[in-house]
Amino acid sequence: GVVTSFWDEYSSHTSQRLKLIDCYLAYIVLTGVLQFCYCCLVGTFPFNSFLSGFISCIGSFVLAVCLRVQSNPANKQQFRGISAQRAFGDFVFAHCVLHLVCRLLI
Description:
With about 110 residues, the chain is mostly helical. The mean pLDDT is about 90. Helix 2 runs antiparallel to helix 3 and helix 3 runs antiparallel to helix 4 (about 85-105). Helices cover about 80% and strands about 0% of the residues.
């Protein structure tokens, strides 16, 4: 079916680096969903902690999507001056800033 066709295309044409980023994206989404479900079931007693963790998930997801877009060889024309190493360096720096801000929310 459609899912099998999509999976075969994804498996054969996607680089190992992009698959690793996709796994990280799936992990971030799962973490955000679990935090939200926990908040709905148990409550939001330390609301700052929930807010900090959820904002961290959303920010990490956005940064990882940016890294995936910049690392994708199909998008080389749009990011001519940015190497994969620079994109990863920007990702790490932005993550440090993001988690510093999230730490200040707690």
